[in-house]
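Project standup — Tuesday

K.O.: blocked on the structure for the chain from last sprint. Re-posting the sequence here as requested.
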Amino acid sequence: MEKALRYELNRINEIANKIYPTNAPEGQKPPYLVYILSSYRQTKTLDRVENDVKVSYLLNILASSYEEMKRITKKVKDTAVGFQARQIGTENIQVGDVTINNITETYESELQLYRGIIDVTFWIKEV
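H.V.: unblocked you, prediction finished:
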């Protein structure tokens, strides 16, 4: 799922090739996106483990201005919602459902950047 997520988010021009797991490299110029896997659950039955997975990510959009952060956060949200009921990436990941659990905003005084945080859950099937 991680590779598929990165593949799809790289289509957003403002953050293309500036998408990082857990933290960005020191000195990275904004805007950029940092994602964190926050939950992973695989479906199990009494007989076997299924290919169905519920996976949640925190998508952190960091930008120099509030307006830029809002604009890119909307693009990221719309892109993630657009995964519903389709295959994403190049590795046969089929997304059945998408839920935006929460969107929050903050200012990082240490970085002097605005942060938009999207908490999103995907229900996927690895084909």
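K.O.: great, moving the ticket to review. The helical segments are 2-9, 66-81. The first helix runs from residue 2 to 9.
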